[in-house]
Amino acid sequence: MRPLPGRMTHAYEGELVVFMVGMRINRWWRVADWWPAFAAMPGMMRELASDPESGMIGYRFFGFPRTPSVIQYWTSLDKLYGYASDPQARHRPAWTAFNRRARVAGDAVGIWHETFPARAAESVYVNMPPTGLGAATALQPVGPRGETARARLEAARRSGV
Question: Which of 22, 37, 112, 151 makes the best surface tag, with the fewest CB within 10 Å?
Answer without folding.
Answer: 112
